[in-house]
Amino acid sequence: MIKRFWQWFRSPSKIGIGFLILVSALGGILFWGGFNVALEHTNTEEFCSSCHMNDVVPEYRASAHYSNRSGVKAICSDCHVPHEFIPKWARKIEAAKEVFAHYTGKVDTKEKFETHRLAMAEREWARLKANNSQECRNCHNFADMDFTQQKNVAAKMHAMAEKEGKTCIDCHKGIAHNLPHMKNVESGFKPKSQTAQ
Fold first, then answer.
1. Average pLDDT of 133-159?
2. Which residues form the domain of 141?
3. Is position 112 within any domain?
4. Among residues 108, 112, 101, 119, which one has the least CA distance to residue 181?
5. Does the pLDDT value for residue 52 go beyond 60?
6. Distance (Å, whole) CA 110 – CA 118
7. Spatial CB neighbours of 74, under 8 Å, sequence gap ≥ 6
8. Within its chain, how far is the Cα of 158 from the centroid?
9. What pTM does this model have?
10. Distance in angstroms (rounded) separating the CA atoms of residues 34 and 28
């Protein structure tokens, strides 16, 4: 009896194999589709606001990335999540630690968030520096800038940055959020004020 079962198991019918392939394919499609829907949900402003409504969301909503004369809006994921497939996955895995920190109480209040703001900002600045400000350059690019349409100081600084191989985050820290208190920071970057410009 065991021998007959083993022979049946080792030589399944074509219908059985076809059914198994069909079920596997449909299961894979449903899993991948559902997973991507969930992944994209974590890229929405509503998702980010669910934890950050009392700390960085008000700052972001006061910035030009939220409301401006042209009506072009950048949401949280445009700046904080790479668009490319592999870097996006790496960032999502890294962000899981940040969600964990919120839910375990490390940064779940405005006061706690402010205590850790500098460390979090420096980590984000280092990430943007390492990828040549890719998330910024998805919308802003030296090659596409018309320096004649910019204010003189901006045109001069952008031309110099392009020539010297600088990246967006070298100059534009605090572009959508308040800067952390940087009184004791050793870096060459010293803000004129503690609010985003």
1. 92
2. 50-171
3. yes
4. 119
5. yes
6. 13
7. 65, 66, 139, 176
8. 24
9. 0.75
10. 10
